[in-house]
Amino acid sequence: MSLDELRTLIARHAARPTAVDWLMFSAQERPTAPQAGIADPVVALVAQGSKRLVLGDRVYDYGAGRYLVVPLGLPVTGHVTQASAERPMLGAGIALRPAAIASLLLETGSGRGGRGTVSGLTVSDAPGELIDAFVRLIRLLEAPADLPVLAPMIEREILWRLINGQQGDLVRQIGLADSRLTQIGHALRWIRDHYAQALRVEDLARMSGMSLSPFHRHFRALTTMTPIQYQKQIRLQEARLLLMSSTEDVSAVGFAVGYDSASQFSREYRRHFGLPPGQDALRLRAERPDTAQHFM
User: Domain HTH araC/xylS-type, which positions (predicted)?
Assistant: First the structure.
């Protein structure tokens, strides 16, 4: 197996709906503008071209033969950096499902550890065995009778390769109920579900099962930001979605996502996205960007 076959398969299937809901593709014929959004748990393998993901002050570049692991929902900015009509950017990814990882850890007795500090994003070189598994998984899209039986088996193989690879500790923590990553994940989900509400860091630490100091340390290690900064990013991204899809005025949108001051909302929105909310909304409605492709 090789990257050549992976490129051929991705190019063939990227424009089609996939019968496997946890398998996804990315294909771009030219570099794209940076786009902000939430990256959900995923392993993304690039077969051709290159991409960049920015989390806080950290920059992650990954090209052909490299893979990125996103362990939990993180506010990132991503874009394709190298692509052309002759050599488009081609990538494949699978959603990292905690239940699937937990089941594998339980069956193999590989769930040791999980209490250490890990970073939120990591890029590594893909071993041949991992590339081979992705190739065989995508091939199954051309064998509908085999797909429901063999696809879950290959998903387990990919997870096993990840658990025993350079990012093993990070992937392992996704499936462990008492890992630091899972504990911080409880706080992240609360913020995402209640982003418009006032936030007390002490309450987040308590729901994560940590005292305040370790909570701050692990939260920043995973997200590169404080809980207040994370909430601000979620608020701004939710505001952007509202501006793109509704006719609410800028002030109403700011209040809806938790801002008490319209001027503060406009100021922080412009600092984050580069344009005032009203102007950005007009641009978004005209372009209707498909942001999902940038975050896998």
Answer: 185-283
Domain that holds residue 71: 3-176
270 in any annotated domain:
no
Q: Tokens 């699978």 correspond to what residue?
A: 94
pLDDT above 80: residue 283: yes
Q: What are residue 23's DSSP bridge partners?
A: 94
Distance CA 193, CA 231 (A): 10
Per-residue pLDDT tens over the stretch 168-193 = 999 999 999 889 899 999 999 999 99
Question: Angle at the Cα of 72 (from 70 to 73), degrees rounded to 5?
Answer: 105
pLDDT at residue 111, as a whole number: 66
Beta bridge pairs of residue 171 = none
Is residue 73 in a domain? yes
CB 48 within 8 A of CB 4: no
Q: Is 235 among the domain residues?
A: no
Q: Taking the CA atoms of the chain, what radius of gyration do you get in angstroms?
A: 20
Distance between start and end Cα atoms, the chain? 22
The arrangement of strands across the sheet holding 89-95 comes to: 23-28, 89-95, 42-48, 66-70, 122-125
Q: Which long-range contacts (CB under 8 A, 24 or more apart) does 160-168 make?
A: 160/104, 160/108, 161/127, 161/129, 161/130, 161/133, 162/43, 162/69, 162/130, 163/101, 163/104, 163/105, 163/110, 165/124, 165/127, 165/130, 166/122, 166/124, 166/125, 167/69, 167/122, 167/124
The answer to whether residue 85 sits within a structural domain is: yes
Pair 68, 120: CB distance under 8 Å: no
pLDDT for 99-126, tens place per residue?
999 999 989 887 665 556 677 888 999 9
Token reading at 235 = 């608020």
Tell me the per-residue pLDDT of 186-233, one tens digit each, with 9 for 90 and over: 999 999 999 999 999 999 999 999 999 999 999 999 999 999 999 999
